[in-house]
Amino acid sequence: MFGAVVVGIGTAGWVRIRDMLTPHPGSPAEKLAVRGFISRRNLDNQQGVSQISVEEAVSRDDIHAAFICTENESHEDYGVFHLTIMKKTVSKQNLETSNLLLTKIGISLPGFGFPAFSGIARLTWLVELFGKLSVSAATLEEDSAKGYSKMTAKLLTSDNRPLTWVEERQTGLPRAKNINFVFDSCTLSEIPAAPRGAVGLFMQDLIHFSAKISDQVSPSQLQGEKERVLHCLELADRIQQLCQSL
């Protein structure tokens, strides 16, 4: 068994505890046991799990992993979208140009970090679809009085095909994700529906994570994921540099 601690008890942290207490039967998630949670607040037990300090968590031999469920600015969030259906579509086409626009509703800017990092799931999604990318330009528009921000990043594929990634946020805007991938033979303007999994996304993520720490994922797969994560973080950092240099 691998012991785990949950850092942050908002909605995500509460669900992480729930899923570790009731893992999907027969899945690698059964190898995880929640040993406690960490919070800035002094709280009662959560679902029967007690609060512990950071010092205790790092010193205990029965704790091997941590689930970070705090605000975005306290960690660079890495998420992987389920791309199987869409990758099949994209892999058959030659890209000419594309745009990815994400609009979020009701998000306060403080605490969520720079858009290239807080939205890194979308960047990872583009790398999964089109391979390694480079950044050619990036801008950031902000209106703090209106709580508005818009990041526009110009990207290039390895064969110099252009991609545009936009993260736009303002309280009151409708939540939406819009794409416009123009290929030489067609245009893809909607994300194909993915089949519904047997368990929810949080449990799927828990199962994938458990498989990795219990050596059920090949070293080559882990290395490939490590390289992809580092590549996306480097891209996000370059985007931030370009935006802040203006």
From TrEMBL:
This is Biliverdin reductase catalytic domain-containing protein. GO terms for molecular function: biliverdin reductase [NAD(P)H] activity; zinc ion binding. InterPro entries: Biliverdin_Rdtase_cat. GO terms for biological process: heme catabolic process. It comes from Oryzias melastigma (Marine medaka). Residues 86-195 form the Biliverdin reductase catalytic domain. It holds the Pfam family Biliv-reduc_cat.
